[in-house]
């Protein structure tokens, strides 16, 4: 049976480090600040935003919440972002996605100052990541890298297969693995013979959004398997993109769902906010 990579425990350790880092900064007169902007009433987004607020409070980070109605115009949202860009108490700005249809998501993300873009979605930060000089790394992929690090998985020379090429997970995690000297294959819906490609992998990272798609007989014995997928089955049950029962019989280590990558995403948001505040403190 594979070792279970405990995302909750890794996240708790990191959050304690972040809390200590925040305390140190506060002793020097700088309080890290995160602005969270929510537009509209999407129930899942509301839950994420309240989780982020709670996590900030626990870490000692000042959180500045802006809950705007679904009718908010693009212009007034851009106005708020301009204001937050100038606000010296704010080190990070997070706009909860998705935005209502009448607002151009790309325009909004590009309006955030790259030096406060703690989600790492601004093209400037995407470019810095791609050129090997990151300022902010996107939170979920960064969490994946921290998990690999915490189980002592050195990627140098390893075959990493990433399944999924989205801008928020697949592509950035592939770039991060490349920067860590892995040989990276990035797969997607047009990849031919996906099981055969996955069989080459020393490390598999699944970010597809298809319940239990990756099966045990796709896995090289001993491989490390990171499951980013979160899929709801019925009312309550959450499963990943990996068929945990069969894959855990062959893998060397595996993340569960829930309790794997999930708890790392908000943790890395706090981490990025603290780093941004540390830059402010250095001046
Ligand atoms: P997207 O829907 O944006 O991207 C999915 C990717 O999977 C696409 O690149 C798509 O290919 C590829 N894909 C779809 N079907 C197949 C297939 N049959 N074979 C191979 N590739 C396929 O998803 P996200 O990246 O946003 O999210 C992926 C998963 O991760 C979801 O379950 C999401 O809920 C979860 N997630 C979890 C987070 C966390 O905090 N734990 C954070 C973010 C996401 P193509 O490009 O060709 O269409």
UniProtKB/TrEMBL annotation:
Domain Tetrahydrofolate dehydrogenase/cyclohydrolase NAD(P)-binding: 138-280
Similarity annotation: Belongs to the tetrahydrofolate dehydrogenase/cyclohydrolase family.
Pathway assigned to this chain's UniProt record: One-carbon metabolism; tetrahydrofolate interconversion
Domain Tetrahydrofolate dehydrogenase/cyclohydrolase catalytic residues, every copy: 5-119
Family annotation (InterPro entries): Aminoacid_DH-like_N_sf (IPR046346), NAD(P)-bd_dom_sf (IPR036291), THF_DH/CycHdrlase (IPR000672), THF_DH/CycHdrlase_cat_dom (IPR020630), THF_DH/CycHdrlase_CS (IPR020867), THF_DH/CycHdrlase_NAD-bd_dom (IPR020631)
Binding site for NADP(+): 164-166, 230
Oxidoreductase keyword on record: yes
Keywords per UniProt: Amino-acid biosynthesis, Histidine biosynthesis, Hydrolase, Methionine biosynthesis, Multifunctional enzyme, NADP, One-carbon metabolism, Oxidoreductase, Purine biosynthesis
Stated name of the protein: Bifunctional protein FolD
Protein purpose: Catalyzes the oxidation of 5,10-methylenetetrahydrofolate to 5,10-methenyltetrahydrofolate and then the hydrolysis of 5,10-methenyltetrahydrofolate to 10-formyltetrahydrofolate.
Quaternary structure and interacting proteins, as annotated: Homodimer.
EC number annotated for this UniProt entry: 1.5.1.5, 3.5.4.9
Example of a GO cellular component annotation carried by this entry: cytosol
Any one GO biological process: methionine biosynthetic process
GO MF annotation, one: methylenetetrahydrofolate dehydrogenase (NADP+) activity
Catalytic activity: (6R)-5,10-methenyltetrahydrofolate + H2O = (6R)-10-formyltetrahydrofolate + H(+); (6R)-5,10-methylene-5,6,7,8-tetrahydrofolate + NADP(+) = (6R)-5,10-methenyltetrahydrofolate + NADPH
């Amino acid at each position: 049976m594979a070792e279970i990579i405990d995302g909750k425990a890794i996240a708790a350790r990191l959050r304690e480090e972040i809390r200590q880092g925040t305390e140190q900064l506060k002793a020097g007169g700088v309080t890290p600040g995160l602005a969270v902007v929510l537009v509209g009433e999407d129930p899942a987004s509301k839950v994420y935003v309240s989780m982020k607020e709670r996590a900030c409070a626990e870490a000692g980070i000042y959180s500045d919440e802006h809950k705007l109605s679904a009718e908010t115009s693009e212009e007034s949202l851009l106005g708020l972002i301009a204001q937050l860009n100038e606000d010296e108490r704010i080190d990070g700005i997070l706009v909860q996605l998705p935005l209502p249809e009448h607002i151009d998501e790309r325009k909004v993300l590009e309006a955030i100052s790259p030096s406060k873009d703690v989600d790492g979605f601004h093209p400037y930060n995407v470019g810095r990541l791609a050129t090997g000089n990151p300022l902010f790394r996107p939170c979920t992929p960064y969490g994946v890298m921290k998990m690999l690090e915490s189980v002592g998985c050195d990627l140098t020379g390893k075959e990493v297969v990433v399944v999924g090429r989205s801008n928020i997970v697949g592509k950035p995690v592939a770039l991060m693995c490349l920067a860590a000297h892995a040989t990276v294959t990035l797969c997607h819906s047009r990849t031919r013979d996906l099981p055969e490609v996955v069989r080459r992998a020393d490390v598999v990272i699944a970010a597809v959004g298809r319940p239990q798609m990756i099966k045990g007989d796709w896995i090289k014995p001993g491989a490390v398997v990171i499951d980013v997928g979160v899929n709801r089955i019925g009312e309550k049950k959450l499963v990943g993109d990996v068929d945990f029962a069969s894959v855990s019989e062959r893998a060397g280590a595996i993340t569960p769902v829930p309790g794997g990558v999930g708890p790392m995403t908000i943790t890395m948001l706090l981490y990025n906010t603290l780093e941004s505040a540390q830059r402010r403190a250095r001046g």
